[in-house]
Write a structure and sequence with these properties.
The protein is of the alpha+beta class and about 650 residues long. The chain is built from 24 helices and 15 strands.
């Protein structure tokens, strides 16, 4: 079972507890506001705006932004990985330079026994100069002769003791430890080195190549510019709070792109086990960092890059800001659209509710508690009920009219009969005319008695009753699928019971039975002739003036009430307990006029009087006379008078 629940019904269900329980006045005020149709309209539009916006925001954040964040991390990882691999190849180039210098024959010949240090200096300075000039990243190259304890560079030569005083400015104890450690290759952390009073930021690489004829006699000290590392890292890292580090095989820091981040890097290294050659997210305190590490397979150096996650996804945050702007624009445009939609849709509802409020006079005590929808619904139910009653009554009038035509012998189609629910398939159809004599003149009472008596005596027959021309007389049309075994005796029994129950003599004139209902005019003619014979044989109880008196009463009643708004022919018929058709027939027979036209002419005369004597608008006069459509009143007035009501008023003035 599928249940369809509108938004208005949902609001009513939510507000139901407010009606059941006694609540404070402030809450009742809120309830009344929420119960208004305008509020429901507004809330429905707001929900229709918020729901798609919420879905769009959820999809945008959970799918698009997350995917974009992952894409940025992947792209950054690939960039870092490529940079580290490129840097590793360039660092390995220093090993190659060290190997080429220390293994060259010219270099080794300069350090043979018996060669004075000054000749050694002049022999190797050009070799060292060539490598410095061809490599922009090299600041200087020193060669240390372990046997003679001399340091050589392209520009100077020092003994070991004077090197500490006049050399590049390395701390003597630390530098001596590096040289005596025997571990190759060795890196000295970036530090400002003073040379002839000027500071340079350099990273020092110490390499050695044990030549076959010597046992590790030489150490090569290559001073590398820090800008070499900085340029490599800056090619992919543009974040202010990020850093890239190079760590040697002993875990010592060789180079740091951002020394202010060294403490954070140390905490990250100590707090998390970082896998090599991959990126991971590490949380330090309340801040997350993206960390990528790569271990060189050739020189043992570890490259590490640390980027704050917030800075990494700054582009994602820009898109989030764009999303916020889009949502605000949608909400602003939606609010403007809601305003005009509510105004456009609610105003007609408000006007319709105003018309319904004026129409629903019977609901005056309840209208105050109703919203516009309830008022319109109540008015529509009232109008529908009246229309249904009118349709039912019109259908009855049409049926009586068609039956009268059948009785008179006027041709009627089967489709017309079936439309008013007259069964044409019965094969036994005949007419009986009933006439009440001697009792009080009350047609409704006689008709009610006759209906009840016939239903009890003829349960299998379909019986239609019409008022006859004579007072207190009725035409009965009997239709059945089979012939009644003792029809005449049953009719006589009904007539006899009437004298006992209502103290009135009832005559029953029976016509012959016919197979088709369209032939009942012949049965009616036979029944009418028989009734006339029965009346001629019965003593007269009518002074002949009964209808004249009634006709006079009818005219007086019409004269007294035709100005009323809802006054019509049916009002007269109901007052005198006559059917519409019988009243119309009798009125025309005695006056020669159609009763509907007679009443309409009286109303138009009253309309002329109002047009001349009052300032009422044409629409108000139309409503006063009972016209639901002003156009119908104007058309009827023009047909009768030859001009419109406004022209008549202008001419009269």
């Amino acid at each position: 079972m599928i249940i369809k629940l509108s938004f208005f019904e949902l609001c009513d269900m939510i507000l139901m507890p407010f009606d059941i329980f006694q609540l404070p006045g402030e809450i009742n005020v809120i309830r009344d506001i929420l119960r208004r149709s305008f509020t429901k309209y507004l809330l429905s539009y707001i929900i229709c705006l918020i729901l798609p916006t919420a879905v769009f925001t959820f999809v945008y954040k959970t799918i698009f932004l997350e995917a974009y964040s992952r894409q940025i991390i992947t792209r950054t990882t690939e960039s870092i990985e490529n940079t580290f691999q490129s840097l590793d190849l360039r660092i390995n180039n220093f090993d190659r330079i060290s190997y080429q210098i220390l293994s060259s024959k010219t270099f080794n010949d300069a350090f043979r026994e018996g060669v004075p240090p000054i000749l050694t200096y002049f022999s190797i300075k050009d070799i060292l100069n060539d490598y410095i000039y061809t490599n922009e990243s090299i600041f200087d190259i020193w060669c240390f002769d372990r046997q003679k304890r001399y340091f050589y560079s392209p520009k100077n030569m020092f003994t070991q003791s004077s090197f500490g005083i006049y050399g590049p400015g390395y701390p003597a104890a630390e530098f001596t430890d590096f040289l005596s450690s025997g571990k190759y290759q060795t890196w000295i952390q970036e530090s400002p080195i003073s040379i002839f009073g000027q500071d340079y930021s350099l990273v020092t690489y110490i390499g050695s190549y044990p030549y076959a004829e010597f046992d590790r006699n030489f150490d090569l000290i290559i001073q590398i510019k820090s800008s070499f590392f900085e340029q490599s890292f800056r090619s992919f890292i543009q974040y202010r709070q990020s850093s890239s580090e190079i760590i040697d095989t002993e875990g010592r820091l060789v180079y740091s792109l951002n020394p202010s981040m060294n403490q954070v890097v140390e905490r990250i290294i100590s707090a998390a086990k970082l896998p090599d050659n991959s990126g991971t997210l590490v949380k330090i305190g309340n801040k997350k960092y993206f960390v990528y590490t790569e271990l060189s397979k050739t020189n043992g150096l570890k490259y590490l890059s640390v980027i704050p996650y917030d800075e990494l996804i700054v582009e994602v945050n820009k898109f989030s800001l764009i999303l916020l702007v889009i949502i605000l624009c949608i909400m602003l445009c939606g609010s403007i659209l809601i305003f005009f939609l509510v105004k456009y849709n609610y105003n007609p509802l408000k006007k319709l509710a105003g018309y319904a409020r004026r129409y629903a006079d019977s609901l005056k005590g309840q209208i105050v508690k109703m919203n516009e929808i309830d008022i319109i619904q109540s008015a529509l139910e009232s109008i529908t009920g009246k229309n249904y009653s009118l349709l039912t009554r019109n259908k009855e009038y049409m049926r009586d009219h068609l039956l009268v035509q059948l009785v008179k012998g006027i041709p009627v189609s089967m489709a017309q009969l079936e439309e008013v629910n007259i069964d044409c398939r019965k094969i036994n159809n005949q007419v009986v005319i009933f006439c009440f004599k001697g009792g009080a003149e009350c047609p409704d009472y006689y008709l009610s008695f006759l209906k009840k008596a016939l239903e009890e005596s003829f349960p299998r027959n379909t019986i239609y009753l019409l008022e006859y021309l004579e007072p207190n007389s009725f035409i009965g049309i009997f239709c059945s699928a089979e012939e009644h075994p003792d029809f005449k005796r049953a009719i006589e029994a009904v007539c006899m019971n009437s004298e006992k129950q209502i103290n009135s003599t009832m005559l029953g004139a029976i016509g012959n039975s016919y197979q088709h209902i369209t032939d009942i005019s012949q049965s009616y003619t036979q029944a009418r002739a028989l009734l006339r014979f029965q009346l001629s044989m019965a003593p007269s109880t009518n002074d002949g003036s009964g209808f004249a008196v009634k006709q006079e009463n009818i005219l007086k009643y019409i004269e007294a009430h035709y100005r009323e708004k809802d006054f019509c022919v049916q009002t007269v018929a109901d007052h005198f307990s006559l059917s519409f058709s019988n009243l119309s027939h009798q009125f025309k027979s005695n006056t020669g006029k159609n009763i509907s036209s007679f009443i309409s002419d009286l109303k138009l005369g009253y309309a002329k009087e109002l047009l001349v004597t009052t300032n009422f608008s044409v629409s108000k006069i139309a409503v006063t006379l009972g016209y639901f459509q002003v156009s119908s009143f104007i058309r009827r007035f023009r047909q009768s008078v030859g001009m419109t009501p406004r022209m008549f008023r202008n001419r009269a003035s």
